[in-house]
Write a structure and sequence with these properties.
Layout: E1 5-8, E2 15-18, H1 20-29, H2 38-46, E3 55-58, E4 65-68, E5 78-79, H3 81-84, H4 104-112, E6 117-118, E7 131-132, E8 135-138, E9 141-144, E10 147-156, E11 159-171, E12 174-192, E13 195-204, E14 210-216, E15 222-225, E16 228-229, H5 232-242, H6 247-263, E17 265-267, E18 271-272, E19 275-308, E20 311-321, E21 324-331, E22 334-341, E23 347-353, E24 359-365, E25 374-377, E26 380-381, H7 384-400, E27 403-404, E28 410-411, H8 431-434, H9 439-444, E29 482-483, H10 485-488, E30 499-500, H11 504-513, H12 522-532, E31 539-542, H13 548-554, E32 573-576, E33 585-587, H14 589-596
Parallel strand pairs: 5-6, 7-9, 8-10, 9-10, 10-11, 11-12, 12-13, 13-14, 14-15, 17-33, 18-19, 19-20, 20-21, 21-22, 22-23, 23-24, 24-25
Antiparallel strand pairs: 1-2, 3-4, 15-16, 25-26, 27-28, 29-30, 31-32
Length: 597
C-alpha cells in the first residue's frame, strides 16, 4: 500500500494530503493522483454546473422561446429540451478528427461551441419548465436539482416531496415550508435537521415529534412549546393566539428561533445509521470520507456532495449516484452506469470519459450529446480496434501536451475540465453558492464573471405595503409586482431579483398553510437557507462535554444525565463542519445520545 503523501495544490498553493486509500482508488481506475486540493477540485467541478440562473432564448432549430441555463452570450447553441432528446438531429455529424498539435481541452471546447445543448438538464418533467437539473417533476416552479415530486415551489436538492415550498435538502415530505436538511415531514414550517415530524413549527434537531412549536433536541414528543409540555387543549389555544398568519408575528418567531438554535445542543455532524463516515447530512453510508448530503446505500466514497442511492466507489463528485459505481471527478453523472471519469451529465453505460451530456454510451472519450454510441472520440465514430489505438495515443498526448490556462496552471490527463473553459460565469454556478466570491476575488482567481442584467421592473407594491395577515390577502395580489425587501434595506449579494410576483399556486399554498406572504424574492430566500447550513468543510475538534469542575470555571451546557466519562471531560475527538470559533455546544455521538434520546 502506498504511504500517505503531502502535495502542494496547483491552484491555491496550499498543502493537502493524499491518503493510502486514495492512492488505492487511483490505481484501481488507472488515473494519476490529483494536483488540486479537495476544495479546489470541488470549485473546479462546480464552475461547470449552473443550477439556478435561467434565461429566455430561442431554440436554434424551431425558433420556439425556451427557458435555458445557457446565457445568450455563452457561445453555446441551444435546442429545446424535447427537440434535443429527439432523433431530429445527429450528434455524430459534428464529429472531428483529433489534432495532435492541440491540447485535448482546447479541442473539446471547440466542439462544445459547435454542438447544440439541451436548454435545461431535465428528465421526464411535466409542466415544470422553470427549473434545471430536475427529474420526474410535475407542476413545479423554480425548483432545481430535484428528483421526484409535484406541486413544488422555490426549492433545491429535494427528493420525493409534494405540495411544498422553499425547501433545501428535504426528502419524502409533504405540505412543508422553509425546511432545511430534513426528511419525512408532514405539514411542518421552519424546520432544520428534523425527521419524522408533523403539524409543527420552528423545530431544530427533533425526531418523531408532532404538534410542537419552537422546540429543539426533542424525541417523540407532542404538544410542546419552547420545549415545555402542554395539554392538547392548552397547546391548540396558544397556537391560535400566536397568529402565525401575520408577517409581523412570524418575524418575531423567526428571530426567537435563531436564539433557540444557538442554545441547542448539537451533534458533531448529522450522520445517521452510518459507519466509518465523515462529513455532514449522511444517512445509510459506510466507509465514506469528506462527503456531504449523501444517502441511501452508499459505500466507499470520498469528497462527494449531493447524491447517493446505491453509489459505490465514487470520488470527487457533485450530484452523482443512482445505481452507479466507479465514478471520478464527475458532475450530475451516474444513473445505472460505471467507470465514468471526468464527466458532466453522463447517464447509463460504461467507460465514458471526459464527456458531456452523453447517455447510454460505452467506450467514448471527449464526446458531447451522444446517445447509445460506442467507440467514439470527439464525436467521431471508430471501430473497436481503431478506438483503442487512438485512445492510447490521445492519453499520452494529454500528458505530454497539457492545456495551460491563463494563470499558467497545467491540465494533463487526470485533471477535470479547466474552469476557464466553462460556458458559465462563476456567479452563474453553484460554485458561488458553496464558495462565494466577490467579483474582484473571482476575476483575480481567473474566473469569468457575468454582469447582472439591469432590472427595470415596474414595482406596483412595496413589501411594507403588503397585507400583514394572509387572511387579508385577496386574489388581486397575483397581478402585483412586489419589491424585494432587500432592495429597500440597501441591497444584498444574493443574486437578488429586486422584484417578484406571487403566482396563484403560491397564494393557494400560503392560505392553506396559514402563512404570511414573503417579503423577499425567491433568490434571497434561497441564499438565506444556504447561509443557515453548515459549510462543506471539516475541522478536527474535541467533544465539548465538560467535567463538573470545568463547568463551574468555564460555564456551558449542563448535562441532564450521567455520561460514560463520568467526572472527567469527554476524550472523544471527531471531524465536524462546526468551525472551532463557533459558539454552539458540539457533542460527540455518545454524549449527544445520552442527552437527547
Amino acid at each position: 500500500m502506498t504511504k500517505q503523501e503531502s502535495k502542494i495544490c496547483q491552484n491555491c498553493k496550499q498543502e493537502f494530503v493524499i491518503e493510502p486509500d486514495d492512492f488505492d482508488f487511483y490505481e484501481k481506475i488507472q488515473v494519476p493522483p490529483p494536483t488540486f486540493c479537495p476544495d479546489c477540485r470541488a470549485v473546479r467541478r462546480m464552475a461547470w454546473r449552473n443550477e439556478r440562473t435561467l434565461y429566455k432564448r430561442a431554440c436554434e432549430k424551431t425558433g420556439k422561446q425556451v427557458i435555458t441555463c445557457f446565457a445568450p452570450d455563452s457561445g453555446i447553441h441551444v435546442y429545446d429540451r424535447d427537440v434535443w432528446w429527439s432523433d431530429d438531429w445527429d450528434p455524430l455529424s459534428f464529429g472531428t478528427e483529433y489534432d495532435f498539435q492541440k491540447p485535448f481541452f482546447s479541442q473539446f471546447r471547440e466542439l462544445l461551441g459547435k454542438i447544440p445543448m439541451p436548454s435545461v438538464f431535465n428528465s421526464r418533467c411535466v409542466r415544470s419548465d422553470y427549473g434545471n437539473h430536475d427529474g420526474e417533476l410535475k407542476d413545479s416552479y423554480l425548483v432545481f436539482a430535484t428528483w421526484g415530486g409535484e406541486n413544488l415551489l422555490y426549492s433545491s436538492k429535494i427528493m420525493g416531496v409534494k405540495d411544498s415550498s422553499d425547501l433545501l435538502v428535504v426528502n419524502n415530505s409533504e405540505l412543508c415550508y422553509e425546511a432545511i436538511g430534513s426528511s419525512k415531514l408532514y405539514r411542518v414550517a421552519y424546520a432544520e435537521n428534523c425527521e419524522n415530524c408533523s403539524d409543527s413549527y420552528f423545530l431544530y434537531e427533533c425526531r418523531g415529534c408532532n404538534n410542537c412549536f419552537g422546540c429543539s433536541n426533542l424525541r417523540n414528543k407532542s404538544y410542546y412549546i419552547f420545549n415545555e409540555p402542554y395539554s392538547r387543549d392548552e397547546y391548540l389555544k396558544q397556537l391560535k393566539a400566536f397568529n402565525l398568519g401575520s408577517a409581523a408575528e412570524m418575524e418575531k418567531f423567526k428571530a426567537k428561533f435563531e436564539t433557540i438554535k444557538k442554545n441547542a445542543l448539537r451533534k458533531y455532524a448529522n450522520i445517521v445509521n452510518s459507519q466509518n463516515a465523515t462529513g455532514d447530512n449522511l444517512t445509510n453510508v459506510s466507509n465514506c470520507r469528506n462527503s456531504f448530503d449523501f444517502s441511501n446505500d452508499v459505500r466507499d466514497c470520498r469528497y462527494c456532495i449531493n447524491g447517493g442511492v446505491k453509489m459505490y466507489d465514487g470520488y470527487d463528485g457533485y450530484g452523482i449516484g443512482a445505481n452507479a459505481e466507479l465514478l471520478y471527478e464527475s458532475v450530475d453523472t451516474g444513473a445505472d452506469g460505471n467507470k465514468f471519469y471526468f464527466d458532466i451529465f453522463v447517464w447509463t453505460g460504461n467507460d465514458v470519459h471526459y464527456s458531456y451530456a452523453c447517455h447510454g454510451c460505452q467506450n467514448c472519450f471527449g464526446c458531447i450529446g451522444l446517445r447509445k454510441k460506442e467507440y467514439c472520440i470527439l464525436n467521431k465514430q471508430y471501430t473497436k480496434e481503431e478506438y483503442k489505438e487512438l485512445l492510447s495515443r490521445v492519453m499520452s498526448q494529454m500528458k505530454e501536451v497539457p492545456y495551460i490556462d491563463k494563470k499558467g496552471t497545467a491540465y494533463r490527463y487526470g485533471e477535470f475540465f479547466p474552469s476557464e473553459l466553462s460556458p458559465f460565469a462563476y456567479n452563474e454556478t453553484i460554485a458561488q453558492e458553496y464558495f462565494p466570491l466577490s467579483r474582484a476575488e473571482a476575476e483575480t482567481a481567473g474566473y469569468a464573471w457575468k454582469e447582472e442584467e439591469t432590472k427595470n421592473y415596474s414595482i406596483t407594491k412595496k413589501p411594507e405595503e403588503l397585507p400583514d395577515a394572509i387572511q387579508d390577502v385577496d386574489d388581486s395580489i397575483v397581478h402585483e409586482v412586489v419589491g424585494c425587501a432587500h432592495v429597500s434595506s440597501g441591497g444584498c449579494n444574493e443574486k437578488c431579483s429586486f422584484a417578484f410576483k406571487i403566482i396563484p399556486e403560491e397564494l393557494r399554498f400560503y392560505k392553506k398553510m396559514n402563512l404570511p406572504l414573503p417579503r423577499l424574492c425567491s433568490n434571497c430566500r434561497h441564499f438565506g437557507r444556504m447561509e443557515r447550513r453548515n459549510p462543506i468543510k471539516l475541522w478536527h475538534r474535541r467533544c465539548m462535554c465538560l467535567s463538573p469542575e470545568s463547568l463551574v470555571k468555564e460555564g456551558g451546557y449542563r448535562n441532564n444525565s450521567q455520561h460514560f466519562h463520568k467526572e472527567e471531560r469527554c476524550p472523544n475527538e471527531f471531524e465536524t463542519p462546526y468551525a472551532p470559533d463557533r459558539k454552539e455546544t458540539i457533542y460527540c455521538e455518545q454524549c449527544y445520545q445520552s442527552e437527547v434520546v
